[in-house]
Amino acid sequence: MANINSNFLNLENRYLFTEIERRKKLFMKENPDKDLIDMGVGDVTLPLCDEVIKAMHKAVDEMRCSDTFRGYGPEQGYKFLREKIREDYLEKGVELTTDEIFISDGAGNDLGNLNDILSADNKVLITDPVYPAYADINIMDGRNITFLAASEDNGFVPLPPAEKYDVIYICTPNNPTGAVYSYEQLADWVDYANENGSIIICDSAYESFVREDCPRSIYEIRGAKSCAIEICSYSKTAGFTGIRCGYTVIPKELVRDKVCLCDLWRRRQNSKTNGVSYITQRAAEAIYSNQGKKETRENIDFYLENAEIITKTMKKLGVKYTGGVNSPYIWIKCPETASGWDFFDLALEKANIVVTPGDGFGDNGKGYFRLTAFSTREKTLEAMKRMEKLL
Questions:
Q1: What's the rounded mean pLDDT across residues 62-91?
Q2: Distance between CA atoms of 300 and 186, rounded to whole angstroms?
Q3: In this structure, what DSSP letter does residue 349 have?
Q4: How far is CA 259 from each of CA 262, 263, 265, rounded to the nearest angstrom?
Q5: For 92-215, where are the alpha helices, taking DSSP H only?
Q6: How far is residue 328's CA from residue 40's CA, in Å, rounded to a whole number?
Q7: 340 partner at 20 to 30 Å CA-CA among 117, 202, 252, 270?
Q8: Contact, 281 vs 85, CB < 8 A?
Q9: Rounded Cα–Cα distance for residues 157 and 182 (Å)
Q10: Is 203 within 8 Å of 169 (Cβ atoms)?
C-alpha cells in the first residue's frame, strides 16, 4: 500500500483565507442586501498599466508568426527579463549576474519549492505573526519550527536570538504587520546567519512600497550574498496577482556543504519546471521601461494614499497600529474586549467590513487585525467612515 505524507495531517484544519471566505459567503447569503466592503484579502484592484498591456499584445502577436513564435523557454527565464532585473538591482547598489536570477510564476510557489534543496533536518525560525504559508510549507516537510515573537515591544521587527537556527524566514516590509527592518536591524540578521552558517530566506514581495530610508533588498547589506536567498513578486508591484510572475535570487557566494546553492537550484529548475510563459515575461519586462516605471509607481502611490487614509483614521480614533507607510498593510490593535476573530465578526455584522483577524497569523497575532490598502478609493473612504462609528 502506498503511504501518504502524514506531515500534512499536522496542518491546521482551517486555512485563514479559506475561513474568511466561508464566513463572508455565509453573511452575504443571510444578508443579500448589505453593501460589504472587503478590506481583508490582499488582492489588487487597479488594472494592469498600459505599458504592460501593450507588451502583452505585442507578445501575443509574435506568437502567431512562425518567425517570432516561442515554444519552451529557458527554465531560468528569458535573459531579456533577467537583465532588466539585474539593472534594477544595480540601481540599488547591488551587483548581480543574470545567472543568479531565476524567473518564477510567483513568490508563493518559490517559497515552497526552495525546500526541495534544503534538508528536512534543518531547524527553522519563523517570526510570529507571519504569513501562514511560511509555517505550512515547513510543516508539510516535517521540519522542526520555532516561532520568534514579533510584538509591540520590539516594533514587530524581532532581532536574532542567542540560539542557532539553520533557516530563517524574514519578510520586509512585513506581511501582515507592515513593519520594515532598518539597515542596522537587517545587518544584525546577516551577521547572525554568517556566524552560524544559517540561510535567510528573505521575502521582499513588497519592496516597491518602501518610501523611507530602509533597505529594499537584503543584498544592500554587506555580507548578505553569502547567507541569503531573496524572493520577489510582481503581484503587488504591478498588479500581477492574476498573471503570476516573480523572481528568486540565489547568489553564487551562497555555499553550504561545499555546494553552491545557485547551481543546486538551477538543477532543480531544470528537472521540475518549463518556466514562465514568454508573454508573461514580456509583460514583466515592460515594468522596467521608463513609462512602465512611471505607471507602476503611480499605482503604488495610489495604494499608499489609501493606506494613509486608514492610518489617519486610526490616529484620529487613538487606536494603536503599525505599517501603512512603507507597506500596503496596516496592523491594528483590537478593542480590549475583542480577539481577532471576535472583531472580525463584529466588523462584519455591525459595519459590513471584512478585516483579516490577526489570530490567523500566529499566536502573537491574537488581539490584532489587518487592513489592506488594495481597495478602491471610494470603498476605502467609506470603510473608514464605518470604522469610526464602530470604534
A1: 97
A2: 24
A3: I
A4: 9, 8, 11
A5: 107-113, 132-139, 183-196
A6: 11
A7: 202
A8: no
A9: 9
A10: yes
Place of cell 540560539: 163
**φ and ψ of 249, to 5 deg:** -115, 125
Q: Which residue has the cell 555580507?
A: 223
- How far is the C-alpha of 308 from the C-alpha of 209, rounded, in Å? 13
**What sign for the dihedral angle of Cα 240, 246, 368, 142?**
positive
Among 297, 316, 318, 370, CA closest to 340 = 370
Largest interatomic CA distance in the chain:
67
User: Which of 305, 268, 114 shows the shortest CA–CA distance to 203?
Assistant: 114
Helix (H, G, I), strand (E, B) or coil at 210: coil
Work out the end-to-end distance of the chain between its first and last CA atoms, rounded to an integer number of angstroms: 57
* CA nearest to 356, candidates 373, 377, 371, 375: 371
| Distances, alpha carbon 343 to alpha carbons 351, 354, 355, in Å | 11, 10, 8
In single-letter form, the type of residue at position 365 comes to G
Please tell me the distance from the alpha carbon of residue 179 to that of residue 202, in angstroms, as a whole number. 14
b/e code 246-267 from CB counts within 10 Å (16+ = b): bbbbbbeebebeeeebbebbbe
Position of cell 527553522?
124
Locate 157 and state its grid cell: 521587527
Q: How far is it, in rounded angstroms, from Cα 351 to Cα 110?
A: 37
Give the mean model confidence (pLDDT) for residues 86-115. Answer: 96
H, E, C per residue of 76-116: CCCHHHHHHHHHHHHHCCCCCCHHHEEEECCHHHHHHHHHH
Q: What is the pLDDT of residue 350?
A: 96
The three cell numbers of residue 26 are 455565509
The grid coordinates listed for 313 are 483614521
Query: Model confidence over 248-279: pLDDT tens digits?
Result: 999 999 999 999 999 999 999 999 999 999 99
What is residue 252's three-state secondary structure? coil
- pLDDT for the residue 235: 96
C-alpha cell, 211? 518610501
